[in-house]
């Protein structure tokens, strides 16, 4: 019996590695698990409820944190949109394309911590988690430094992609001011995942909530009061993201994580190459998905009335990105749940967590599909009062709704793959 149980667990791990989390066999696993309890549908319902509670303990604060963090970008674009159409296009290109390129890569690379810290937490090897986070800081900071030329030469790169000289020049100037924001990713992303893997998402939620309040005030102060223009907008994002990083590190280092944080360790400098390989694999899976719509914005700059076209598509992609924080939170939550279950040697539990998470994310995607279709001519008013831009966004609303729906599943399934890696 014990040998058969081990074979079942190994089969579940293989299924996860092959990405088969929604096959007929998977549903048979769920049905068999329910039947084992002797309660049929009632037992299955109880299992789904219990798994959902475990999942939402991770996902709910993660959604709040990610939506709030992304809202800082939305507020930034809203302020830029009321400066003018060209200013909105410039800040959209700089923030969505230039910053977004590094954001996608580093966010994906940081997801390696969901694998390592999740499995360490499941196996009760708490001391390893602080070391893993420090390794992630080192790897992501090195990556951030390697990406710096992209910010210094943003204007030249944008010109090569066919953007207008005026738009490229303005976006290039703003991109340089976004360098502190870019560097903050190397510290914030590992801190967030470190806390998430030990179910301390309330700290993430509190820090990002406080940072949003700071960001709203500083944005008003720099843009509306002091009239700093686009430079002021860039400075507000820099300040707010670094404030978040400072609050999270203060929580971790001042006693918030006594079991998992024991100070800085030389051990963080060992095993870096293995960590780089795992981080790179995790980064590629997420960043390719994150980059594709940013490339669309670049291509839009080659159309007639480029500023209007970029404004309209940027608004749609901002709404998409805003909603995308939900499936990305399920990506993170699924990774943690799967890693926890595998760390504890429970392959069936890992597969069941994947199925529950996927179905939940799909239902949420359907809700937002209905919302976008119903408000197709209203939601762009958040960003602009230009009648031309509003009409262009209205024409894209149905495509946006289907994009949101289709993107509600893939990130969740992607979260299972790095989680099955071994530490």
Automatic annotation (TrEMBL):
* Organism the protein comes from: Zizania palustris (Northern wild rice)
TM segment ranges: 55-76, 88-116, 137-154, 174-191, 203-222, 228-252, 352-373, 379-406
Q: Please report a single Pfam family linked to this protein.
A: MatE
Family stated for the protein in its record:
Belongs to the multi antimicrobial extrusion (MATE) (TC 2.A.66.1) family.
This chain's protein is named Protein DETOXIFICATION
Highest taxon listed in the record's lineage = Eukaryota
Q: Name one GO molecular function term.
A: antiporter activity
Task: Please provide one cellular component term from the Gene Ontology annotations of this protein.
Answer: membrane
Q: Could you list this entry's UniProt keywords, alphabetically sorted.
A: Membrane, Transmembrane, Transmembrane helix
Q: Where is it mainly found?
A: membrane
Q: Where in the cell is it found?
A: Membrane
Membrane topology annotation: Multi-pass membrane protein
Q: Which PANTHER family match?
A: MULTIDRUG RESISTANCE PROTEIN
What are the recorded Gene Ontology BP terms?
Answer: xenobiotic detoxification by transmembrane export across the plasma membrane
């Amino acid at each position: 019996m014990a040998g058969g149980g081990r074979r079942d667990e190994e089969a579940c791990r293989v299924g996860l590695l092959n990405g088969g989390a929604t096959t007929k066999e998977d549903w048979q696993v769920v049905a068999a698990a329910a039947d084992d309890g002797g309660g049929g549908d009632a037992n299955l319902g109880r299992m789904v409820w219990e798994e959902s509670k475990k999942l939402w303990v991770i996902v709910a604060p993660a959604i709040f944190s990610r939506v709030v963090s992304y809202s800082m970008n939305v507020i930034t674009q809203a302020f830029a949109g009321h400066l003018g159409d060209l200013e909105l296009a410039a800040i959209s290109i700089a923030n969505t394309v230039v910053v977004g390129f590094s954001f996608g890569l580093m966010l994906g690379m940081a997801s390696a911590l969901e694998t390592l810290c999740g499995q360490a937490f499941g196996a009760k090897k708490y001391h390893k988690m602080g070391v893993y986070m420090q390794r992630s800081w080192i790897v992501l900071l090195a990556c951030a430094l390697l990406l710096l030329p992209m910010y210094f030469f943003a204007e030249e790169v944008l010109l090569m992609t066919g953007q207008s000289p005026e738009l490229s020049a303005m976006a290039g100037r703003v991109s340089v001011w976004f360098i502190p924001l870019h560097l903050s990713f190397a510290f914030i992303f590992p801190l967030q995942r470190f806390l998430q893997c030990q179910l301390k998402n309330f700290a993430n939620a509190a820090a990002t909530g406080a940072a949003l309040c700071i960001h709203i005030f500083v944005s008003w102060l720099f843009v509306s009061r002091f009239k700093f223009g686009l430079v002021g907008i860039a400075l507000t994002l820099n300040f707010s993201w670094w404030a978040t990083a400072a609050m999270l590190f203060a929580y971790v280092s001042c006693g918030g994580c006594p079991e998992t944080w024991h100070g800085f360790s030389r051990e963080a400098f060992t095993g870096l190459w293995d960590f780089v390989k795992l981080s790179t694999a995790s980064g590629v899976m997420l960043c390719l998905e994150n980059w594709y719509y940013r490339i669309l914005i670049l291509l839009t700059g080659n159309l007639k009335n480029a500023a209007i076209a970029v404004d309209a598509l940027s608004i749609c992609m901002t709404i998409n990105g805003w909603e995308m924080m939900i499936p990305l939170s399920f990506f993170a939550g699924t990774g943690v749940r799967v890693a926890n279950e595998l760390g504890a040697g429970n392959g069936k539990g890992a597969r069941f967590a994947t199925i529950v998470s996927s179905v939940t994310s799909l239902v949420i995607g359907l809700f937002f599909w209905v919302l976008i279709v119903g408000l197709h001519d209203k939601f762009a008013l958040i960003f602009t009062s230009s009648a031309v831009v509003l009409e262009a966004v209205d024409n894209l609303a149905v495509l946006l709704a289907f994009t949101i729906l289709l993107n509600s599943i893939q990130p969740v399934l992607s979260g299972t793959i790095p989680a099955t890696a071994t530490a």
